[in-house]
Write a structure and sequence with these properties.
alpha/beta, 4-stranded parallel sheet, 11 helices
Length: 313
């Protein structure tokens, strides 16, 4: 099982075979996580530090659980009360971490490129848990695993990504991953929430939900990221839901067996109807959460293997 990367900083650096390698290994961890005894020892003796400069529930809990199930010593650093707040630079933080000799460093940061900068300065494997509007690679990988398990494949599907594309690192990572795996990608949303030069990504862009959802296999809804907005990007939440929120009437335009996804947290009644989000026949949102632990276990195992090989004299 070949995976020739020291870090997992983004989907952009991965080849299709790298993606398949992670997902194939993650399948075995889905099985492990459904057993009564969920423990493995592939990270035994290794130290994992989770540094979240932004608040997180799902991603931080998922990485912590993944590390503990693989036998790592896991430490969560509270960055809201850290020395960064006292003026310490990111480089000084990296030097401090080096002195602690961690093996795996999981980082979420509000600024694009900050995780890559840390990776250049530390002597361990770094996993990007989301950096600004740049990338969120493990989210795209868990979405890929969810799609593959639900549809039986991860290629030549038509996938609609709907909503706040402009502020979404999840959208960017998914566009990269789905593109590498030969899928047709449609982006749907208001022009105010589309990034500049989005057409260069090899995607279709639609403003109208009816047009964009026609016949799609996967409908991926995105959260309105109001914390990243500094102006009037939408007229009102009520009008946004009417035009771009997913409900049963709009979903009926997709393929009859289309699945519904959302990376969470959800704003029910804003980007998705609550009843639809809970529909076990169409929604795979809870499956995404489950796949997240398995994918992060797989990614950490592969990086730990490379770390061990690099340290072997």
């Amino acid at each position: 099982m070949s995976f020739a990367h020291r870090h997992l900083l983004g989907i952009e650096q991965l080849k299709p075979q790298d993606i398949t390698t992670i997902l194939d290994l993650a399948e075995s961890y889905v099985d492990l996580n459904r057993q009564a005894a969920k423990h493995a020892d592939v990270l035994a003796g290794l130290t994992q530090i989770n540094m979240f400069f932004e608040a997180s529930t799902r991603t931080q809990a998922s990485f912590e659980l993944a590390g503990k199930r693989l036998g790592a010593d896991v430490m969560n650093m509270s960055m809201q009360a850290s020395s960064i707040k006292k003026g310490e630079t990111l480089i000084d933080t990296a030097l401090t971490l080096n002195a602690m000799h961690p093996d795996l460093l999981v980082v979420r940061h509000p600024h694009s490129g900050a995780v890559d900068l840390l990776a250049q300065k530390v002597n361990c494997a770094v996993l990007n848990a989301g950096d600004g509007r740049h990338e969120h690679p493990t989210q795209a990988l868990l979405d890929g695993l969810t799609i593959r398990r639900a549809k039986g494949r991860l290629h030549r599907l038509t996938v609609a990504i709907c909503g706040d594309i402009a502020h979404s690192r999840v959208a960017r990572s998914n566009i990269l991953l789905l593109g590498k795996m030969e899928n047709r990608i449609r982006l749907i949303g208001p022009p105010t929430l589309m990034p500049a030069r989005i057409g260069e990504f090899g995607v279709e862009v639609h403003e109208d939900m009816a047009e964009g959802l026609a016949g799609v296999d996967v409908v991926m809804m995105l959260r309105l990221q109001k914390e990243r907005m500094d102006g009037g990007f939408i007229p009102s939440e009520r009008e946004y839901y009417h035009l771009w929120g997913l409900d049963a009437e709009k979903l009926a335009l997709a393929a009859p067996d289309a699945i519904v996804m959302h990376p969470g947290p959800m704003n029910r009644g804003v980007e998705i109807d609550g009843t639809l989000a809970d529909d076990i026949n169409r929604s795979v949102i809870q499956d995404q959460v489950e796949m997240g632990v398995a994918v992060r276990m797989a990614a950490m195992e592969l990086l730990a293997r490379n770390l061990a090989a690099a340290r072997t004299p």
